[in-house]
Amino acid sequence: MVNRITGESTSALSQALLRLASIDPIDLCHEAKVETCKATRDLRRCSGSVHRVLVSCDHAALCDECIQRCELCPICRTPFPKRGDELPLRLYDECIEAGLIPEKQDGKLRNSENGDNQQIADVQRLYSLFDVALENNLVTLICHYVTDVCMNEIAVSSDPVIAFLLDEKVVIDWCRWTFTSLSKDLQVKYNYTVNEMKGESNFFLRILSKLAGLSKVLEVLESSFRVPVSALLQDLNHLHDSILKTKQHLEIMVWCITHQFLTNMSSRHPGMTSWKSSFAERKSAANKQAWPDSMNQILKSNEQCTSSLFIEDALKNLDSAQEYTDYDEAVCSLMKGEHNSYKFHGMTGSYPFENIRTAVDLLFLQGSSDLVVAKQAIFLYYVFDCYWAIPSEDMRHIVEDFAVAFKISRHSLLESYIFFLLDDSSDLALKEAISLLPEIASPDIHPKIARVLLERQNPDAALMALRCSGLDWGVAAASPEEAITAVRTWVECGLLTEAFMYQRKICEKVKTKNPMDLHDKETNYCHDWLLWLEALVTEICCLCIRRNLVDRMIELPWNSDEEKHLHKALLEYATIDPSSNAGSLLVVFYLQRYRYTEAYEVDSKLQALEDNMLSESCDEVLACKVRSTSHWRKRIVDQSVHLLPDVAQQKLKNNGGVSAVTQNESPSAKTDVKPVQQPLLGSVLFKDPRVQLHSNSHPRR
Fold it and tell me: How would you class 157 by CB atoms within 10 Å of its CB: exposed for 0-12, middle for 13-18, buried for 19 or more?
């Protein structure tokens, strides 16, 4: 007996779902509308509730009582069978009988079917049919209702109730109402303990399915808007973003519940105080290793030269996205706790997160849903940071399961791991990061990896990362910071010619590029190729001075625009340290190009600087070195000046050696006269050991 009843219920359920799946979308609003009996009784209309459809004409015109006593349809006067039990139920009533719509819910609607609440009852009945479709994976029916009915200009009705149900706002309101209801259900379940939530896994999977269905409906609604900017569309986008964030958060929660929030694994940090202290040490170490920002120096910015960790950059991006995201009470209600640290310091100030639940709430319920990949990477970073010291087998199982659950590629997995290793200040972490670097070598490699490796004194690994990213020859439109990193890498590896060719190529590219196509559209300095030129040439000069490569640098074929910054950099360094060979090699630079006037003027400046230093210095060894270099340089310059015409020599003597080439003006690229004693100059310039710089390291070519 029980089996027979169960079979009948299953059959009724299947028939109701089959009818719902095969119904024409425009008939949904007719099925949802409350119909009253059209028969007359005692000279008045009956107005009873209609539950069945007349087979002969498909009109819902008679109540169950009037069906027994009437023979004709009151609308079209067509005869119908006498037995009312043989007449099919309306779709809404069939769903109630099959148990798809709770009878308690229908009872509430019947109580509100009188007077002004009639329209509300019709809308709620349509919502009930949408709920049945959403619950049973018939979301395509709702999507077709949007495209074929709501957005169809031909679908109109003179009935005000039907006309209202044809509006897309009804579907949007249903999505919002359903999402609010699902959020409240989730909020209750999220307050359970871990073991209790583990027992609700089927409930969470059903909610995930419904959220995915709502997302599909909203995608169809968004694509149907013809006006790209409107208040209704913005409201729709905000609702869609909230649903996606809730779905993404629930997916992570399901994974964490499955693994019991990793409570069975011990953290490598004794406590939060120790973890925060370790994180502060990492930031301090990164700031100490940071190289100066050449662009800020050129722009005379007061910003302090600091280096940020990978995790700080990622969290700042989320904070920036949060500024353009509207507050959603339904989404924020899913958070557990107050999260005061986030309220006062943002996402960046909240790291390291107190626990995994806090990390999941802050990452996946804040910011834009479009950043889900970045949020997953940050979550992986957090897991690495918390449990990296445990045995590798346990860690591998957790990470691989996470990658499979969220379809994360091995490249992205290793990239997050390398970010964590490079943020760690220990040599062991750096060594492991370098060993894994070839596995993520691709044009998509993060450009900051090369800079961090360079700051950690690993130019070879930085060069490999640079070549993999495609920035070594300006394949990608690099930002000024990335271009400076490329130049630094070339010079640190001893590849001076490559650095020179790179800066020239990237400057030409920026010069001919449309400013709107450049990497950083918010900063005006990125649009000025002359600033790029100044930054890159100055960087090459400073690095060559530091690595004693100035003698090789001055042999490169610099043009007039580049010479200006080379002149400025070497002369400024000679002004700071007159005992260095930078100024003397600047003189050699002009002599090699037979520009004796500029050489004489630079030498005059250097003589004044050296005399001033000798008058104040008490170091006899240093003074002897400076006098020897000055005497040698003056002898070479005097020999070169004698090659000038008498008029030019007299003009130099009358000017008293005052330089006509200032630091802010480009030196003339023209030679004074044609060279007449090239062998003499060549033998003198490169045989004196006091000009040749002997580097401690042997740069590789």
Answer: middle
